[in-house]
Here is the input.
Amino acid sequence: MSRRVIEGSYARLTGIRDSLVTTIDTVVSIDFHDDYMVILSQLREKVDDPFDGFDLPQHVTDGLDRGAYGALRKPIDMKIRQLISYLEKVHNAASKIVEVGSVYNLIRDPELKSRCADLLSAHDHFDRVINQATQVLEERVRLKTPQFKDEIGIKLVNSAVKNDPAVSPIVFSDNQNEQEGFASILRGIVGAFRNTSHHRFMANVTREQALQICAFIDNMLFALDIAEAQH
Here is the structure.
């Protein structure tokens, strides 16, 4: 268990570090502060190591609004890099981990991230990522069309997304070709991945493949969010 926590924390920390690199702002989102402290707390709880000296100094958030932007970038970046180096040198974190953190942090949907984070950091059984990601997608279709709340899988998609936007409960585009494209994509995801991962093990799925599918589903969730619902 502790090894899994170390590797998962390492992946998340490298993702946060790489995200910080993209900004030169002095003050950044409070999420950087909060995410780092959660990771540090989990390491202390699950790993036999006090991780002394890695707490963020008080002045990181002193006098700053805890709204969208409320933490100083430089001290957060410094502590993250120190902890990453410590995990590499003391706990050999880089010896096995596949660094999915950078790509993973590009995923926008919070529910998708929360359900797939620990699974992507695991040692194996990455078909569970596909299981959870497709379940999030299916549930989002159901929430968009509550009249079909009792339907599942292909039946749900066929009911909620028609090729003709004029009669479709969910409209991705007024252009019929584009609407047909989204309908086909949803049917394909549900048929090829949702049904398979819910009914049998997919033993050959790699971490990278699971992340790729997760990222694609994130794009579909975004398209669903802005699609029009017709009742």
Q: What stands out?
A: The chain has a mean pLDDT of 88. The chain has nine helices and four strands. The beta strands are 27-29, 69-72, 170-171, 228-229. The CA atoms of residues 31 and 152 lie 35 Å apart.
